[in-house]
Backbone:
């Protein structure tokens, strides 16, 4: 839910401009709020989810937008299919990969509990991307499944297989700028609908949910004078 943090949005826009990105790929559409929001920032937005109940809400939210496509597909397959098509059409542009299909499912076998690992395996060798992992453990709010936090322990080795030259950056508490319910009306791409307002209320229920860790992986180093980010190893 990066749309909650004005600073995160600014970093994404700066990365878009620096790497000349027109396609925003999201895994985990949830209620479609983020996909709808980024339809105003990118030429195309592609997203996916596996849960019918969320897809129904998400599809309703984007029905009037002609640059947002949400598929019912598991994210590793969704990314594999995207890359297949990308290569087939001879594309060379950089795309933004926003990985956010985090959902703890106690019924999943241990080796499948981190969906993000399956996603990164699908991206192996695909160097034309900026990867952004939401809910990353940089000391801010993050995913933690069965006592294992979502850090480099979970994704580091796989990220190196996506691009061995990736540079890693992360956000900081001091620069988070979280929106409140009253801000929604003035932010392009957001609406005062029940789902958006509920998500904002939920995010403000405890600091762990308000301030979320984000990892940014870029194919070339960033000039940190231009970004509100710090280097992460
Ligand atoms: C944290 S939410 C995503 C929030 C959304 N990106 C936003 O910014 O509002 C995680 C979503 O991932 C979905 N999900 C879980 N496993 C998935 C998978 N294997 N493939 C695609 N989506 C998945 C869940 O159904 C849930 O809607």
Residues:
């Amino acid at each position: 839910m990066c749309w909650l943090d004005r600073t995160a949005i600014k970093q994404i826009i700066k990365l878009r401009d620096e790497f000349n990105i027109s396609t925003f790929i999201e895994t985990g559409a949830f209620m479609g709020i983020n996909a709808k929001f980024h339809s105003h920032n990118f030429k195309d937005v592609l997203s996916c989810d596996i849960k019918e109940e969320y897809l129904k809400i998400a599809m309703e939210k984007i029905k009037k937008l002609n640059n947002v496509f949400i598929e019912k597909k598991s994210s590793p397959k969704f990314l594999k299919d995207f890359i297949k098509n990308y290569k087939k059409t001879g594309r060379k542009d950089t795309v933004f990969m926003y990985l956010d299909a985090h959902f703890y499912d106690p019924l999943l076998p241990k080796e499948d509990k981190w969906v993000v690992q399956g996603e990164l395996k699908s991206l192996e060798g695909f160097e034309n991307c900026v990867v952004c992992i939401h809910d990353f453990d940089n000391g801010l709010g993050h995913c933690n499944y069965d006592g294992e936090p979502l850090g480099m322990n979970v994704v580091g080795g796989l990220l190196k297989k996506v691009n061995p030259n990736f540079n890693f950056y992360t956000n900081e508490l001091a620069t988070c700028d979280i929106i409140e319910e009253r801000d929604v009306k003035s932010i392009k791409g957001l609406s005062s609908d029940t789902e958006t307002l509920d998500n904002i209320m939920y995010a403000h229920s405890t600091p762990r949910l308000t301030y979320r860790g984000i990892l940014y992986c870029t194919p070339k180093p960033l000039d940190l004078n231009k970004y509100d980010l710090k280097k992460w190893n």
In short: Helices lie at 6-18, 33-38, 52-62, 75-88, 115-122, 152-162, 194-203, 207-210. Residues 75-88 form the longest helix (14 residues). The CA atoms of residues 13 and 231 lie 18 Å apart.
